[in-house]
């Protein structure tokens, strides 16, 4: 029988609420601790989710013998130092996307995981979802693939307040924010899972006054095919994303959810690939992470260390090309 995994959480925002809701569908997951810089914030979150322990010191949470694994959902700039601290305490780590603030940090995280012989996984829910797995297993039906056009443009709910002078970590250079790091990664990671490391990366985009990108388009070049990855926090897309092959095209509805996909063949016939999965698709990253820990493996096949490192390498190169400083203070 699979063992229960006792989670501590870092971060008390809506994404952690959603993660805990998703974990309720996996009876192997329990939540025993929460970390926040402010005690009252931790206590309020703990009452909301019936969590026993509250901490304002991450070292102390990692020393708690009722914590087996840590879910990290803090600002991007904090991912690497917090993950490394937790792993050095022999805690398994599930870290929100993007994996780190830059490739150098990501490499240090992977080295730390291997040194401590524990599980480290990026919480990229799309690529462990049933829809994405169905896409992978059906791609041969559309013949040789030559193009992937991935669109994730979503007008930020914070943008008007940002223009009025408010500060947000997702739109700040100090916290490694920006469009590519926040939502562009949803177009990059599936590309890497499907095609691997590109031979070339070209990026155009525009920046906000804060020094991060508000929108960007990446072209990844591969042998015989290319991927066009479009993301924006200042506009919305209505068109579907497409994987185009010689025999047909796979349409993907919404790059941030992967809730449905279908094939349209050259003769016009259509085939639904998958239409039924949990609305809260973070369920699948919870399942994947706990499965890996209980199996004795150290990484996911799809959300692997290699795929996270390649994705981070693309993010670094794309951001540098449009004038973003990727170094951390």
Keywords:
about 325 residues; alpha/beta; Rossmann fold; Dihydrodipicolinate Reductase, domain 2
Structure description:
- There is one protein chain.
- The protein has two domains: 5-124, Rossmann fold (3-Layer(aba) Sandwich), CATH 3.40.50; 127-281 and 311-321, Dihydrodipicolinate Reductase, domain 2.
- The protein contains ten helices and 14 strands.
- It has helices spanning 14-23, 39-49, 58-62, 79-88, 103-116, 130-138, 159-163, 179-195, 283-295, 305-321, and strands at residues 5-10, 29-35, 53-55, 69-72, 92-96, 120-123, 145-153, 200-207, 213-222, 225-232, 241-245, 248-253, 260-265, 270-274.
- Helix 5 (103-116) links the parallel strand 5 and strand 6 (120-123).
- Helix 1 (14-23) packs across helix 9 (283-295) and helix 4 packs parallel to helix 5.
- The model has no long low-confidence stretch (mean pLDDT 96).
Any chance you could write out the topology, listing elements then pairs?
Layout: E1 5-10, H1 14-23, E2 29-35, H2 39-49, E3 53-55, H3 58-62, E4 69-72, H4 79-88, E5 92-96, H5 103-116, E6 120-123, H6 130-138, E7 145-153, H7 159-163, H8 179-195, E8 200-207, E9 213-222, E10 225-232, E11 241-245, E12 248-253, E13 260-265, E14 270-274, H9 283-295, H10 305-321
Parallel strand pairs: 1-2, 1-4, 2-3, 4-5, 5-6, 7-10
Antiparallel strand pairs: 7-11, 8-9, 9-10, 11-12, 12-13, 13-14
Helix pairs in contact: 1-9, 4-5, 5-10, 8-10
* Topology-level CATH name of the largest domain: Dihydrodipicolinate Reductase, domain 2
Largest sheet: 8 strands, mixed
Shape: globular
Work out the count of structural domains.
2
Number of strands: 14
Strand order of the largest sheet: 8-9-10-7-11-12-13-14
Secondary-structure class: alpha/beta
| Low-pLDDT ranges | none
Text of the CATH class of the largest domain = Alpha Beta
Mean pLDDT: 96
Rg from alpha-carbon coordinates: 20 Å
């Amino acid at each position: 029988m699979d063992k229960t995994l006792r989670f501590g959480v870092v971060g008390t925002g809506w994404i952690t609420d959603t993660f805990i809701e998703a974990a309720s569908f996996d009876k192997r997951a329990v939540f025993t601790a929460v970390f926040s810089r402010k005690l009252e914030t931790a206590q309020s979150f703990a009452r909301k989710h019936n969590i026993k322990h509250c901490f304002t010191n991450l070292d102390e949470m990692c020393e708690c013998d009722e914590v087996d694994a840590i879910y990290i959902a803090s600002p991007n700039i904090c991912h690497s130092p917090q993950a490394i601290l937790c792993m050095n305490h022999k805690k398994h780590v599930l870290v929100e996307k993007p994996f780190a603030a830059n490739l150098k940090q990501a490499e240090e995280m992977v080295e730390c995981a291997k040194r401590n012989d524990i599980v480290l996984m990026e919480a990229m829910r799309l690529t462990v979802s049933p829809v994405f797995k169905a896409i992978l297993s059906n791609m041969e039906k559309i013949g040789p693939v030559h193009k992937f056009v991935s669109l994730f443009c979503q007008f930020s709910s914070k943008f008007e307040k940002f223009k009025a002078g408010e500060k947000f970590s997702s739109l700040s250079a100090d916290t490694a924010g920006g469009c590519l790091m926040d939502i562009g990664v949803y177009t990059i990671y599936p590309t890497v899972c499907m095609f691997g490391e590109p031979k070339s990366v070209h990026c155009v985009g525009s920046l906000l006054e804060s020094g991060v990108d508000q929108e960007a388009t990446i072209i990844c070049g591969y042998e015989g095919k290319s991927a066009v990855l479009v993301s924006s926090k200042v506009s919305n897309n209505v068109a579907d994303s497409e994987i185009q092959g010689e025999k047909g095209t796979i349409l993907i509805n919404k790059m941030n959810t992967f809730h449905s996909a279908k094939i349209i063949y050259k003769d016009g016939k259509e085939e639904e690939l998958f239409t039924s999965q949990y609305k809260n698709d973070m369920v699948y990253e919870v399942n994947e992470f706990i499965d890996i820990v209980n199996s004795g493996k150290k990484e996911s096949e799809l959300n692997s260390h290699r795929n996270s490192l390649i994705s981070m390498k693309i993010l670094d190169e794309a951001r540098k090309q449009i004038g973003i400083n990727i170094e951390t203070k």
